């Protein structure tokens, strides 16, 4: 039971990290001038 709970917490934190990275990348792309690409 404890292992299952630990795994779910790990998955949630991993998903949150991926969401944070993707949102940060989109935010940076929106701010960055188009001629920089």
Short description:
The chain is mainly alpha-helical and 37 residues long.
Explain this structure to me?
The chain has 1 helix and no strands. It has one helix at 2-31. The N and C termini lie far apart (49 Å).
Helix content: over 70%
The major beta sheet can be summarized as: none
What percent of residues are in strands? under 5%
Shape: rod-shaped
Provide the residue-averaged pLDDT: 83
List the total number of helices. Answer: 1
Radius of gyration from the alpha-carbon trace, in angstroms: 16 Å
Strand tally: 0
Structural class: mainly alpha
| N-to-C order of helices and strands | H
Poorly predicted segments:
none
Distance between the termini: 49 Å
Distinctive features:
single chain; 37 residues; mainly alpha; 1 helix; rod-shaped
Secondary structure layout:
Layout: H1 2-31
